[in-house]
Amino acid sequence: MNQEKQIDKLISTLNDRQQEAVLAREKHVRVLAGAGSGKTKVLTTRMAYLALIGAEPDSILAVTFTNKAANEMKERAMKMLPKELNIDANKMWIGTFHGLCNRIISAHHNLLNLPKNYEIIDTDDQKTILRRVLEELQISEDKKEVIKEMLIYINTAKEVGQRPEASKKLLQSLGLPPNYLNIYKRYEEIRIRSNALDFGDILLYVKELFERNPAVKEYYQEKFQHILVDEYQDTNEIQEEWLKNISLGNYLYVVGDDDQSIYGWRGAKIDNIINFSDRYSSSKTVKLEQNYRSTNNILNAANYIIKNNTKRAGKDLWSDKEDGKPLMVRQCFNPEQEAKVIAEEIKYEIDINGRNPSDIAILYRNNAISRSFESKLTERRIPYKIIGGIGFWSRKEIKDVLSYMSMINNEENDVSFERTINFPPRGVGKKSILNIIEHSKNNKISLFESLNEMIINKKIKGKALNNIKEYINIIEKGKRMKEHSPYNIIMHILDSTNISDAYDKEGEEKADERKLNLQELVYFARNFKNEEEEKTDLEAFLYHASLQSDADKNKEGDNVQLMTVHASKGLEFPKVYIVGFEQGIFPSKRSLEQKKLLEEERRLAYVAITRGMETVEFSFSEKRYNQPVEYSKFLEELPIDILDFKSENDYGICKIGREILRNKADKEDSDRTISASTNSYFEDEKPKYEVGDIMNHKKYGKGKIIKIYEIDKKLVAKVDFGFIGKKDLIIAKY
Q1: What is the value of pTM for the model shown?
Q2: Catalytic pick among 45, 126, 260, 497
Q3: pLDDT value of residue 112
Q4: Could you say which of 39, 287, 330, 602 is catalytic?
Q5: Of these residues, 230, 349, 397, 582, which one is catalytic?
Q6: Looking at residue 275, what DSSP letter applies?
Q7: What values do phi and psi take at 257, rounded to 5?
Q8: How many degrees, rounded to 5, is the angle at CA 707 between CA 706 and CA 709?
Q9: 60-64 and 226-229 strand pairing
Q10: What are phi and psi of 547, to 5 degrees?
């Protein structure tokens, strides 16, 4: 078979735009690959095409973000190549940024003053070095918190290519103490003397290698004729610089989706993909807009939402599938009802319709939303699995509070004692805790009793003593409240320990998430009902938590999938629920004040919607944490004709439909709401109306026009009045 026929066979299963992308010959090519458009297929076919037309396999460099994706790319490319050509795809350089850069470091370790057997250290190793530095520098602050902050500082500095001396401005922007610079310097001295690289060093070492050794940079520029990049929208500053260096004078081929750039909070620069054509004026852009995953109604919803972003390259997804079902907007009274009705619907889908549990996904903006869904699914014996995270009751901040509650319920709980004695930090060192444990063992008493005895015997001294006494007072006061509600006990713990403040040092994003989880715990406790006759409210609450915690554990087999929208990227499901779709949650509260963050929230919504293959449902609550909330304003960006509305309130009337219509009308300076009496009609002229208009009826109230049709020279509207039902009303007569 000649080369032309081999190429025709290779691209025969691709659509026109995919073929255009694979065959592009320009030096710089940007493929804007929409969700479900066959991105991986295009990238791997491009690799096979290059080898097929004669590019040496070892001149092809393909970069992605996970080892799994790298292995998949290699396997698929190898399968596409005709065996008779004996092309060795193993010679291609395919891997992650860190994997490929480590390979370069290994080849030139001598130029970096590294031995051949240098080591890559993990986070635990970094913490070990930092603990040693803190001892050496005699830093008296809480070491655990300092180490946490130092890891953020060091890793962020290296992501933007900064060694200690260059990182002073970064240190200030992070709001960290000036002496942290000395910690960073000493950390680097120990790491270098240990012939070790941390994860952040890997790209930075290659950057420095190229800067100090132009001949090495030129070697790789000459070696790699074709550089292909996957998920280009997720590249950060130092990754982009590496790509520029290595692709100079060569063919750079990037694939990504600016509309799915959702990792700005961890350094991803959307400008890298948006401004590609500005940096490379003669570049070619190919848009992959045909989606093979979702119905057109789902794609239209995604298109309408994302077009409200100003920072995007622009594309519109479409499919040759049918329009499919409208997207449901479900209005609920509170999160418990929201979780209950969705769990019941899922059970019906599984038990009656025979749907596999793994076909169903529940997506949420933040982890705190999952608690009520975990509970309602467990009650109905519906198997579920938390993807990319842990269950609500197993999360650190929840276990921290539960441990205090356990100590109040039973002061002899040594496991809870060890978790609470120095959290939030009280300056109780390891040596003191070991002494408490030793005294407990020798006297066969609990750790809490051991602590009290050691204070009485004056075996605990120093500045930690007052903090320890405060800890004992917190537990003792809690014990006097044992007959109070779990809500009151939790509020006592939060108020007296200031535990939520301890999370602030983990960074804004993580701290916000932990505080939302605590808020969810408070809400649950406020509404908790003791159904265990022989247990106190506190005992019943802890019993419930232990059962739920056991259910949290990921199970193998066929499960409903629960995850954050971030964790869902790259996945697809026939049935998708997007829950907690409310202002302040999705979009997040912080994003409402910053356009840049709001656009990333909108991209998150785009990602969430495009996970759905057959049906997508939004749900929101009228109240959350006993406070009124608004539905997500993203709903107002959707076309009304692809939505259905359902309310779970007593009357079955969903306010959201008419509110969206009213707000959209206000924006357009038009109001198309019409009125009709029981037998009203218009004899003079055909009225102005549209499907989706809200009708105010004297007898039936407000309803949405869902259909318009003619019969016997009469114009009839089918109107959905919610709880009352659907009515056919004459609105014009000719």
Answers
A1: 0.74
A2: 260
A3: 94
A4: 39
A5: 230
A6: T
A7: -140, 105
A8: 165
A9: parallel
A10: -65, -45
CA distance 4 to 17: 19
Within 10 angstroms of residue 261's Cβ, the number of other Cβ atoms is: 27
User: Which candidate in 330, 611, 624, 658 is catalytic?
Assistant: 611
Contact 170, 237 (CB under 8 A): no
Active site residue 260: yes
| 231 catalytic residue (yes or no) | yes
- Which of the residues 149, 198, 201, 231 is marked catalytic? 231
From the number of C-beta atoms within 10 Å of its C-beta (0-12, 13-18, 19+), residue 129 rates as: buried
Cβ 344 vs Cβ 360: under 8 Å: no
- Active-site residue, 714 included: no
Q: Is 40 a catalytic residue?
A: yes
As given in the structure block, the two tokens for residue 371 are 């608690």
Contact status, residue 250 vs residue 224, Cβ threshold 8 Å? yes
Q: Residue 229 is inside which H or E element, if any? A: strand 226-229
What does DSSP say about strands 93-96 and 60-64: parallel, antiparallel, or unpaired? parallel
* Number of other residues whose CB lies within 10 A of the CB of residue 314: 11
* Continuous segment of H or E residues that includes residue 417: helix 414-420
435-461 residue pLDDT tens: 888 888 888 888 999 999 998 888 887
Residue with tokens 């001149």: 59
Tokens of 525: 């406790």
Task: Provide the residue count of the chain.
Answer: 734
- What are the Cα distances from residue 278, in Å, to 28, 234, 367, 370? 11, 18, 39, 43
With cut-offs at 50, 70 and 90, classify the pLDDT of residue 552: low
Q: Which amino acid is at 306?
A: I
Q: Which helix (H) or strand (E) element contains residue 708?
A: strand 701-711
Six-digit token string for 220: 């790789």
Q: What is the CA radius of gyration of the chain?
A: 30
164 residue type, one letter = P
Distance from C-alpha of 469 to C-alpha of 462, rounded to nearest angstrom: 12
In whole angstroms, what is the distance from residue 707 CA to residue 243 CA? Answer: 55
At 259, which amino acid appears? D
